[in-house]
Structures are given as C-alpha cells and as structure tokens.
C-alpha cells in the first residue's frame, strides 16, 4: 500500500500541469510578429528624424553661435547621449521608487511647463 502511494506521488511530480486545462500556451497571444512591422516602422522613422537633426543642429550652432564644426558635433554628441540615457534613469526611478503612474503625471506636467515656457 505504501509502495503504491509513493508511485502515485512520483507521477504527480513529473507533470504538475497535467490537470490544468487553461495553460498560458493555449491562449491566443497578442503582439509578436503581427506588431513587429509597427515597431520597425517607428524605429526607422525615429532614426531618420534623429539623423536629420544632426545636420540641422550642427549648421544652426555653426551659424548662430559661431561654433567650430568639430565643437558643434561634440555638443550634439553629448546632447544625443543624454537624450538616450535619461529615459533609462527615469525608468529605473519609476520602477524602483515612484511608480509608473506618478512618473507619467510628473513627466506630463514637466513637459507642459517646458512647452508653455517656450510660448511666452
């Protein structure tokens, strides 16, 4: 009898999801290859915009601020690095301390204040 009990326990350990009929692998998943075209399109146009920004910003700094071309490219590289790094810092702060909804509210208010300051 005890031998039979041990045999049943070993079968249960081998397949814990055998009686679970609604496994996550059977559900219809969203995303994947259906949405990759939108992601690639977004990344392509974002890269196009940032690459065209290089030329415009360098020419602007060269003509308006009388900077050397090499120095204006260096300023652009520093600006580009900060623009790409700051969202990582903000994401860490949002995940670890603040929470995503509070960070979204803070970001929205900060963006509103900066944009309204440009108008005046």
Strand-helix topology:
Layout: H1 2-14, H2 36-64, H3 69-98, H4 100-119
Helix pairs in contact: 2-3, 3-4
Your description of this structure?
It is a single chain. By secondary structure, the chain is mainly α. The protein has one domain. Helix content is 77%, strand content 0%. The chain contains four helices and no strands. It has helices at residues 2-14, 36-64, 69-98, 100-119. α2 (36-64) packs across α3 (69-98) and α3 packs antiparallel against α4. The longest helix has 30 residues, at 69-98. The radius of gyration is 27 Å and the shape is extended. The termini are far apart. The model has no long low-confidence stretch (mean pLDDT 79). This is Nitrate transporter, putative. Keywords: Membrane, Transmembrane, Transmembrane helix. It comes from Medicago truncatula. Residues 1-15 have a biased composition (Basic and acidic residues). InterPro entries: MFS_trans_sf (IPR036259).
DSSP summary: helix tally:
4
The first-to-last residue Cα distance is 87 Å
- The topology string of helices and strands comes to HHHH
On the 0 to 100 scale, the average pLDDT is: 79
Note the overall shape: extended
Number of structurally distinct domains: 1
